[in-house]
UniProtKB/TrEMBL annotation:
NCBIfam families: HAD-SF-IA-v3
Protein name from the UniProt record: Beta-phosphoglucomutase
Keyword Transmembrane helix: no
Keyword presence, Magnesium: yes
Length: 286
């Protein structure tokens, strides 16, 4: 059935970006005060001179989608096809800009309440279930670990640092991705946003993660790829690394990321204290 057939995508996009979040009132924790550090002042990558000191880090809280693996292209494909089938935007496919601004990293009920406010809860739930099932069909044989992740996880384990995964994905999706990446046994707990009082961008999932690890925010870092996830981690008081797997650098800085990396190889460079000239090809600001 065609819905939203009278809306233009650009108009809807503009409107959605100004709608208040239903979870905004939860964000009462004071964010960490800092200056956002771009990936490479002058175009260089993050280095050990930029204030990321692993000597004080006792635990790492990882997002899953777009962080452990580059899953956004699959989510984009599935959402694009599902929305087009519903007649969204007069049946024209959404583009990647719309996906990044309005969908990536967000909780399904919040997304669908804004895209289809006239839908019943039953209709929205069925759409979400069908979409997630389509994602799992693709993810099981497609996903691979982010560059440097294997080495970074190994270093954390060798140095007895703790780790959990914190995600807005449904538990079935989270488990599917971890199985596909052969990472199911590598995390102490999997924190699911929908199983907390509020999902990201509220801080609740990260607060649950900190409590599970019995660490203070200053003793941990979070690694996130989406504005929603970064806002959640920062609201929980956790210094946050933004990974540039899909979003623009400026978007992640605005959300509150203290550091930006291309992938986990950049973190290994920091751990082994490589100077910028010893690192890989410099990344230009996007």
């Amino acid at each position: 059935m065609a819905t939203k057939t009278g809306s233009s995508l650009s108009a809807l996009d503009t409107g959605l970006r100004h709608l208040p979040s239903r979870n905004k009132q939860v964000l009462t924790a004071q964010p960490v005060k800092h200056e956002s550090n771009p990936i490479g002042r002058g175009g260089r990558t993050l280095s050990h001179h930029d204030g990321l000191d692993f000597e004080v880090v006792k635990a790492v809280l990882f997002d899953i989608d777009g962080t452990l693996c580059n899953s956004d292209p699959l989510h984009f494909k599935v959402f694009q096809e599902a929305l087009q089938k519903e007649g969204f935007n007069n049946g024209l496919p959404i583009d990647e800009t719309f996906f990044r601004r309005n969908i990536s990293g967000r909780h399904n009920p919040d997304i669908l309440a804004e895209l289809f406010p006239e839908w019943t809860a039953e209709k929205a739930n069925q759409f979400a279930e069908d979409k997630e099932a389509a994602f799992r069909c693709l993810a099981g044989s497609t996903l691979c670990r982010m560059p440097g992740l294997t080495e970074f996880l190994g270093w954390l384990e060798e140095t007895n640092r703790r780790k959990v995964a914190v995600t807005n994905a449904p538990r079935s999706n989270a488990q599917c991705m971890l199985d596909a990446l052969d990472l199911s046994a590598r995390f102490e707990q999997i924190i699911i946003g929908a199983e907390c009082a509020c999902p990201k961008p509220a801080p609740d999932p990260y607060i649950v993660g900190l409590n599970a690890l019995a660490v203070q925010p200053s003793e941990a870092i979070a690694i996130e790829d989406s504005p929603s996830g970064i806002r959640a981690a920062v609201a929980a008081g956790i210094p946050t690394v933004g990974i540039l797997s899909g979003q623009e650098a400026a978007t992640l800085r605005t959300a509150g990321a203290r550091w930006l990396i291309r992938d986990f190889k950049d973190l290994m460079d920091v751990i082994y204290k490589k100077a910028p000239e010893e690192q890989g090809t410099p990344v230009e600001m996007r």
